[in-house]
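Q&A log
Question type: sequence-to-structure
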Amino acid sequence: MARSHSAEVATAQLSGRLGRAFPPLAILQVCHVAGMTGRLRARSGPRRATISFREGEVIAADSTDREGLDALVDFSQWSEGRFDFVCGAPPPRRPCVRGPFAWLMLEICRQLDEARGRAS
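Response status: OK
Response body:
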């Protein structure tokens, strides 16, 4: 019985493919609006990202070479990949992302706009 319970706990409750129809920011918003608690794991080629949520709020984020808000900005630029969300208590660690979800989304968009402006 314990074995099947362990397999159930590790099974993703939400998974899919990143792309134009379902970009990273949309996935973050779904997790927020649904009030999810757990970890969003994403991968695109060699890149990896993990974003921890507690009751829909982002509490930690890291990617292949960034953490915190920088990892969220990096992840939001991905144009393809796969993701899954595993519900449950996020791993115990000090939160490295602070601020309400709405502020985080606005800050990510601001940084993306500034990066596009520099690239032009």
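Response note: The helical segments are 2-10, 24-33, 69-76, 101-119.
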